[in-house]
Amino acid sequence: MPTDRATRRLPPMAQVLLAGLLLAGCSGGNYTWGWYVVSPLNPQGQGNIAFLLSGMWQTISVSLLAITVSIPLGLLVALPGFGRNRVGQGFNRAYVEFIRSIPILPLMLWVYYGLPVLTGINFDPFTAGVITLVISDSAFEAEIFRGGLQSIERGQHEAADSLGLSALDKLRFVILPQAIRRILPPLGNQFIYVLKMSSLLSVIGVFELTKKANELVVTLYRPLEVYSFLILEYFLLVVVISLFVRRLERRMGADQRQRGR
Amino acid sequence: MAETIISLEGVTKRFGTFEALKKVDLTVALGERMVICGPSGSGKSTLIRCINRLEEHDEGRIVVDGRELDQDTRNVAAIRREVGMVFQQFNLFPHLTVLDNLTLAPMRARGMSRKDAEEVARLYLDRVHIPEQADKYPAQLSGGQQQRVAIARSLCMRPRIMLFDEPTSALDPEMISEVLDVMVELAREGMTMIVVTHEMGFAREVADTMVFMDGGEIVEKATPAEFFVQPKSERTSLFLSRILAH
Ligand SMILES: Nc1ncnc2c1ncn2[C@@H]1O[C@H](COP(=O)(O)OP(=O)(O)OP(=O)(O)O)[C@@H](O)[C@H]1O
Ligand SMILES: [Mg+2]
What we know:
CATH topology of the domain at 66-205 in chain A: MetI-like fold
Bound molecules: adenosine-5'-triphosphate, magnesium ion
Oligomer: heterodimer
Strand content of chain B: 25-35%
Number of helices of chain A: 11
Order of helices and strands of chain A: HHHHHHHHHHH
Helix content of chain A: over 70%
Largest sheet of chain A: none
Largest interface: A-B, 24 and 27 residues
Number of helices of chain B: 9
CATH class of the domain at 66-205 in chain A: Mainly Alpha
Helix content of chain B: 25-40%
Radius of gyration of chain A: 22 Å
Distance between the termini of chain B: 34 Å
Number of strands of chain B: 10
């Protein structure tokens, strides 16, 4: 399986990345590298690293919150697309097409600065950011669910129907458990996407990884080193998510023991 | 014959403008074993799929077990609980063990406890001669075993009527008889059955009524004795001569 190979290749991949950075350090032209600002080997570097890492929790909690709320929302948006109700189908298409056409940054500015004008409720930056990611993400997840649910053979629906299972039971016990295995990889991708998009929250002042890096750059004036460190932070988070999703996939595949599928 | 359990009156089914069933009339008595045959595309599957509303008919009336199949979804649900269906492609739930395949509907649609449902499931696994496969997954079974599990799964709902849509067509030849044997046993127990099949040996053995369909119509309906010996219709005898030739 190609996915397994990719997992095993990760450490060498990291090596190549580091080697690349070091090489860049040797051939930097006139630039005098200042890696010491993010080096764990001196007190200043340690302080800076601690400062940069302190955004980690915000990034993680924003992303986790956004993905956990948007997955059920995405499912709720996807389901009417399968019903016979024309209004439901229309809602599904309109939601998906409209929401996914909005770039995240404008949507976030609209939620943070615009929505309070309409509703009179002021969101703090964190909440506004999560709302934005949830809205945007749910449209993509609705499409992921649509694809996954559609991929289940008609015979499965017919067997469940002919046994007298209700529509909800059919979904819950027959269709979703099979679809979820096929949906997991694209959902994992979507989680990675959400994590990266959470960096945009720095614009409205959420103190996540990117905002911390921006602050440090302003005081140190070392954008190359600080932003390199920032990229590394995202890279590590993404690796952790990938490993987690792979493990989940394997666990779900294991209890199925389907031959030839 | 005994009381009527299924009746179709002037049933028409269209796919777009194509008429798959053309004003079909048919009655099935309680305990009757009916075998339907006919060329590919003649509407055999469509006919039996209308009986449990996997297809919605466009005209006419279908009454099953005293309930009319109409827009009332409660009627549809009630009828589906009383009518079992076995498919050509088995359609077992691949993510569930054999036992869970069998207990799901009784627990969810009949409100049985897990304990009772498992008891019933083991009873029927016994009846289809594979009690030892309860904890396997469908993909670990042979085609014949899978089809027998599918039959048992339907029986666990304790239906009054069983529909079979070419249950042996997807099987390797050596597995056909193990499935037919189970169906013969079921017929002997008095189950009302409608079976779409080209297994004429089976038909001769169990059928009370033979139905021949062509072009969305019931061309001939007769007892096996009449049907096989002196079919009334030209089309029937032509069809029979073709399939009995092999
Ligand atoms: N969902 C559908 N959409 C459009 N046409 C359909 C559909 N289902 C069946 N038909 C058409 O209706 C006709 C009857 O189909 P049906 O499946 O009932 O035939 P059958 O007698 O069961 O044939 P076979 O022996 O091949 O299973 C065929 O011409 C078929 O192409
Ligand atoms: Mg058919």
